[in-house]
Write a structure and sequence with these properties.
The protein has 268 residues and is of the alpha/beta class. Helices cover 25% and strands 14% of the residues.
């Protein structure tokens, strides 16, 4: 039995009010994690789990506020990614064919909201942390093949799940952006983010042309656990006043170049 430490345990009731099992009990052997947007709210997901809603069930719900609920253990399979035998073959490379139910070798993650709305920063961070934990816990690579969108499995009925194509690819870029970095660069990034945040500068990849300054940046960075989501591909200089000085005070300004190949060295 594996439980995500950051999740609230809200178990899915096994037998629904109709008398039918709401999920596949004890027969799941996870080899991948399918990502979805739930077309609804966390409150509905909670209620469905409590009553044992039949016809759709999954393992994790990720809220727009960054909260996470876990509903099923890994060995249980949800009703989240099955496709009819008559449906076109998925483009997902790990698909085992129509003869094997996708729900019996995957974990399902639903994200609060509606397709096309995008994800909040708290939700993106919570989703990425959960996915990284699942990859380690289940022992498979943290990559796109092992974390497919539902759209790669059900080509007809779910073309915008999880998110329309543009938003989906932006989220995957965010998910895996640090995986191609060396350990040394990851350490430099962490130190640079902390230095910038401490001086009132935060970079949010959902707003690539904007910087967040001052107290807003400090609050943003603190909420994100010091991850300010800096864009390493930016060929620019980030400059900001840490405080709002009075007219007679000299402004405190720190300028830090951020090169395309992340050449910034932080030594403070």
């Amino acid at each position: 039995m594996s439980r995500y430490p950051a999740a609230e345990w809200v178990p899915w009731r096994y037998i629904s009010d109709s008398g039918q099992p709401a999920y596949f009990k004890g027969v799941n052997r996870p080899e991948a994690v399918v990502l979805h947007v739930m077309q609804g709210y966390m409150s509905t997901a909670r209620q469905w789990a409590i009553v044992g809603h039949y016809g759709a069930s999954w393992h994790f719900s990720v809220g727009r506020d960054g909260s996470v609920m876990q509903h099923l253990d890994f060995e249980d399979g949800g009703y989240h990614a099955g496709i009819p035998d008559t449906a076109p073959s998925p483009v997902w490379p790990l698909w085992k064919g129509h003869g094997v139910n996708v729900n019996l070798y995957t974990i399902g993650i639903e994200h609060e909201g509606f397709s096309g709305d995008g994800f909040t920063e708290a939700q993106r961070l919570a989703s990425r942390d959960l996915c990284k934990w699942l990859a380690g816990e289940l022992g498979f690579p943290y990559d796109r093949d092992h974390f497919p969108p539902h759209a790669d499995i059900d080509l007809v009925n779910r073309p915008s799940d999880f998110a329309p194509p543009d938003g989906r690819e932006a989220h995957y870029q965010y998910m895996f952006e640090e995986e191609s970095m060396s350990e040394a660069d990851r350490l430099r990034l962490d130190r640079l983010e902390k230095l910038l945040a401490g001086n009132g500068i935060a970079k949010d990849l959902s707003k690539p042309d904007e910087l967040t300054f001052g107290e807003d940046a400090l609050a943003y960075a603190a909420e994100r656990g010091w991850s300010a989501f800096l864009g390493l591909g930016l060929n620019q200089t980030a400059t900001a006043n840490h405080k709002h000085p009075s007219p007679e005070e000299e402004p405190r300004v720190r300028t830090i170049p951020i090169g395309t190949k992340f050449q910034a060295e932080v030594t403070e």
